[in-house]
Amino acid sequence: MTRPGIILIRPGRFSVLLTFFLTFGLLSVIVTAGPASARSGTDTRLDSVVSSFLDEPSWAFANRPAEIQAHFSSPEGPMGYRTGTLTLKFHQRGSVPETIQLSEDTFDPRFWVTPRTTGMHYYTVTYSGDKYYKPFKKTFSFEVWTGPETRTFLKVSTKGPVTVSQPVKLTAHVTTRDGKPLTGYSDGPIVFYSNGEIIGEGTVVPGSRGWRAELTVDYLEVGRHNITAQHETFIRYPGRPSAAVRLDVTPAAKPLNVRASHTVSSPAPYQVDAVAMVQPRNGGRQPTGYVQFYSGDQKAGLPVRLSGGRATYSHWTSTEPGTYTFRATYLGDTKYAPARLPARTITMPGS
After folding, report:
1. Which pTM does this prediction carry?
2. How far apart are CA 145 and CA 115, in angstroms?
3. Which region holds residue 104: left if phi is over 0, alpha if psi is between -120 and 50, else beta?
4. Domain residues of the chain, as ranges?
5. What is the enclosing helix (H) or strand (E) of 151?
């Protein structure tokens, strides 16, 4: 009796079909491959993760080289370093890809690109992969700012003379050298000067990225002031001070005299505390305004506002022993005349 017997065996990756032809006593073994996904195998290499950014504290400007840094943040493989290549393609017409051969001596690979225009720019970083790491490819972006050369414009709230202690608003605006808006962020304060001496740091106007600042001053002494503003860049935005704006400060029309005193004491080594008292000489309202303190002939900081007719300042002396002289001047207000206070000396023992 001829009856074929069929046994189907599936051991995993292969199916074995055993066909017995009993009549002829013939054993046929047919081997067929398993599913395609099984045939492809699994890539057991580690994932590659590459981050990239402009190297701090660098900013990118048109027609100036910008440094780009790449960093592998994936786990270290058995060798402790990566081989293969890392390529940067800058997406700018005419740009040629740059490739670095990786080895155990490669730490945080760096590339240089030179953008020709302002605005957003893109580049692609491609890692070839190696025996232990999979390939990686990602596109990054950075913005190219206007600048870096700057120009500063200054505006004063009044053109005519002002009486001492009356407030004056100063506004400074920083632009590119040709007067266009700066699209980046300021890297330093805008500082205001009178006759070359600092009179204060401006308060940044919200939303201006630091390129516009204001300062209200009511402590300018009687006399002529040539006011300027300067963007005090820390690194990247060089520029000259603004053109000077002249401002004349006058005393009160019919000023009254004050009665003033000035005392100094040393509560601690190298420290001298000065106290100025300013009172009306013949009754009337309490004097307002400011007192300018001096160490020797040099101004000690900015003027100090009177509070209840009193102003204080802490001087710091050298560690060398010696006798030091301190001065103070009342700047006056819309009713009272300026006044020089008595100079005081104090002997310090030094260290």
Report:
1. 0.79
2. 10
3. alpha
4. 5-38, 50-145, 150-250, 258-348
5. strand 150-156
Distance CA 101, CA 87 (A): 9
Q: Give CA 16 to chain center in angstroms.
A: 71
- 84 secondary structure, DSSP code: S
Measure CA 202 to chain center.
16
Model pLDDT, residue 59: 82
Pairing of strands 162-163, 245-250: parallel
CATH 2.40.50.100 fits 258-348, yes or no: no
pLDDT digits (tens, 9 = 90+) for 271-292: 999 999 999 998 889 999 999 9
* Per-residue pLDDT tens over the stretch 297-343: 999 999 999 999 999 999 999 888 899 999 999 999 999 999 999 99
From residue 83, give the alpha-carbon distance in Å to each of 41, 73, 105, 139.
Answer: 23, 15, 10, 21
What is the C-alpha end-to-end distance of the chain, expressed in Å?
123
Q: CA-CA distance, 293 to 26, in Å (whole number)?
A: 118
The C-alpha atoms of residue 159 and residue 261 are separated, in whole angstroms, by: 35
Helix residue spans in 52-108 (DSSP H): none
**What's 50-145's CATH class?**
mainly beta
Residue given tokens 């420290």 in the structure block: 271
* Measured distance CA(28)–CA(2) in Å, rounded: 16
Are 16 and 29 within 8 A, CB to CB?
A: yes
Q: CB 190: neighbour CB atoms within 10 A?
A: 29
Number of Cβ within 10 Å of residue 12's Cβ equals: 7
**CATH code of domain 150-250:** 2.60.40.10
CA distance 333 to 251: 7
Residue linked to tokens 């709230």: 157
Q: How many residues does the chain have?
A: 351
What strands lie across the sheet with 110-113, from one edge to the other? 50-54, 66-72, 110-113
